[in-house]
Amino acid sequence: MNDEAGKQPQSLMIAAIGGVFLLLSLAAFLGWIVQGPEMLLTMAENGMSWCF
User: Fold this and answer.
1) Where are the alpha helices (DSSP H) in the chain?
2) If you ran DSSP here, which 8-state letter would residue 28 be given?
3) How far is CA 13 from the centre of its chain?
């Protein structure tokens, strides 16, 4: 019985899920870098409108 044969598909699936998570995290980070100032100003304007 070879235990390595059963572990390879599982480790491959874990690596694929990790890769997808890494790509989504990178996309979110790049989106924050590009759109961050606009998001911050929008949140500040909406917060100020609740004060007045």
Assistant:
1) 4-51
2) H
3) 18
- For residues 25 and 49, what is the distance between their CA atoms, to the nearest angstrom? 32
Per the structure block, which two tokens stand in for 5?
């044969």
Structure tokens at 15: 């690596």
Which residue is associated with the tokens 């911050």?
Answer: 40
For 16-34, letters b (16+ CB in 10 Å) and e give eeeeeeeeeeeeeeeeeee
Q: What are the two backbone dihedrals, phi and then psi, of residue 2, each rounded to the nearest 5 degrees?
A: -110, 115
Q: Model's pTM, two decimal places? A: 0.60
pLDDT digits (tens, 9 = 90+) for 10-50: 989 999 999 999 999 999 999 999 998 998 898 888 887 76
